[in-house]
Each structure stands twice: as C-alpha cells, then as structure tokens.
Amino acid sequence: MELRQLSYVEAVARYGGFTRAAERLHVAQSAVSAQIRALEAELGLALFARTTRKVALTPAGELFVARARRVLAELDGARTEIHEITSVVNGRVSLGATAALGPYDLPQALARFRDRFPGIALRLRSGLLTGLLGALDEGELDLVVGPLYADLPARFDALPLVDEQLLLALPLGHPLARAGRLTLGEARDEPFVSLPRGLGLRWILEDAARSAGFAPRVEFEAAGAAGIRELIAAGLGVGLLSRAAAEDAPGPAVAVRHLHPTPVHPPIGVMHSRDRPLSPAAQSCRHHLVEVAGRRPDPSHRTESGPGGGSAGGDAEGGHLP
Question: At what angle do helices 59-87 and 3-15 cross, to 10 degrees?
Fold first, then answer.
C-alpha cells in the first residue's frame, strides 16, 4: 500500500469520479484507475461500485476512505510542523500577559513552544492590560494574552483562546451554599468581597447587581482573585469568582453556586497590533497559543465580548479600555 494510493482513493471519493479526480491531481486517469485497482486487489475487496453513470463508495470503501483521510491529515500536519521548524529556526518573541488568565495555562503553553522552537528566544512581561496594550503600540511587545474587552480598540487584532464562567463563591456552610442555582438578587443582603472600585471584576459585580435591582455592599476589597477567595473562605462575605479561580487554583476551600443569569465574563485571548506586521517567530507563537487552546486560528477574526467585559479572574483593570 502506497500513500499515493490513499490520495487517489480520497480524491475519487471527494470528486465523485476518476476523471475529475485525475484532473485535480494532475495525473492521467489511467494512472488513478490502475493504482486503485492494485489497491483493491491487495485488499481483496472493491472500494468503489462502478456504473456507466457514476462511481460510488462501497461500505468497505466508506470505511477505508475515513481512515485514509485521517492518515493524510496526519501527514499534512507533520509536513506543516516540519516546515515550521525548518523555516523558523531563530528569532525573538516579546509577550505580555495579565495576571489572571482563567483556565488557560500560559506557562505550559510557552514551555511547549520552547520545546518546539528551541531557537526562538521568549520574553514574558506581566502587568495590567492597559499598560501591555500601550507596549504593543510602542512596539515593545509582539503579543499580549489577556481578557478581550468588548471595546478593544480596532487597531488591535484579537483571537479568543478560552472561555470562562463566573460563579458565586461563598464560605463553606453558608445557607446559600445549600441552594441550587441562584440569582444574584438572592445574595443582595450579603456582604461582598471584590476588587477595588473601577476594576474588572468589581465592574462586572456592580453591573450584574444593577441588573438584579440592587447595589452590592462591598465590605472587603482584595488586590486579586486569590485574595478574594481567602477573604470569602474566612467567612467575611460572598463574591464573584471565575471557575478557575474558585475551583482550580490553589487556596482555601469555598462553596460555589451557579448564577442565573450568568454574569458576562470576557474570553481570554491573544492580541497584537494591526499596525506592525508580526515576525515569523511571533506568527508561530500566536499560532501555537491558539493551537494549544484547541481553537482554529483565523487571522481575519476579531472577537467581541459582552458589554463592559472585565477580567473576572482578578486582572486589575477597569471595565472598559481607554
């Protein structure tokens, strides 16, 4: 069995006939027919039911084509990766990231990128999103990973990486912890723990509470998601946290409940400046970050999140970008 035989079978199945397949493959029809006949003889069964009007896959042919497509897809993927390694052998990528990235494991993604492209030097800067986007404008950074606000300026291109969900976090044993799905209004009389006023998660809390018909009584403020969780675990109030911050991150145990409606949480994504073309190294890094997230890279896509999105994981940013 040869790879070209797999390609010929797949092409005949795709284009519905030997003539069209041969035209697309730029080979003689006789060559396609001969190779498929040889393959069928090797397998001991027919892959195509041939009539004077059409060519159709047999049941065995359908199974074979499905497997052949997987093999050919793996081969194409291997060719792409080899091309990346041979064409992007060196360079430098300066990356910025906000402190809270939900379930996206940036350190692991960068470790895998370094293994994949050992000749590319990586530099990572952490900070607030506004400052990092300013560094993109100045050309100090190539890429930024952080929350994708709805009003992200059009001069930045953005691709989503992961979505996140907001939950109500409560002290263990709290009466509301025994309830099922809650509305935020049911917690209107509770003291809240959140970020300082004007920052991302605080903005989301105030906006969601306003929609529920009340103003939250924030008695304790923390600098980030970890601090919010610690204060809630100590019994000092309730608060909004991302699922990753409440359940996956290390820290004291808290109870969590789903809210209905769920407060809007902006996705985490990767951004770059439209005014500066990405270097081959930066392009490879951007592609890798999206690939690790399980998304299909689409250079023409620009995401939009819900109104006034902020970093629910604790990024110290306002609800809107400047």
Answer: 120
Q: How many CB atoms lie within 10 A of CB 235?
A: 13
Q: Report how far residue 162's alpha carbon sits from residue 255's, in angstroms, rounded to the nearest whole number.
A: 24
DSSP letter string, 6-37: HHHHHHHHHHTSHHHHHHHHTS-HHHHHHHHH
Tokens of 6: 């797999």
- Which tens digits make up the pLDDT trace of 258-291? 999 988 778 899 999 999 889 889 999 999 999 9
The string of pLDDT tens digits covering residues 97-114 is: 987 787 888 999 999 999
Quote the pTM value: 0.58
5-37 residues labelled b (16+ CB within 10 A) or e (exposed): bbbbbbbbbebebbeebbeebebeeeebbebbe
At 259, is the secondary structure helix, strand, or coil? Answer: strand
Question: What domains can you pick out in the chain, each with its CATH number?
Answer: 3-87 (1.10.10.10), 91-163+266-292 (3.40.190.10), 166-257 (3.40.190.10)
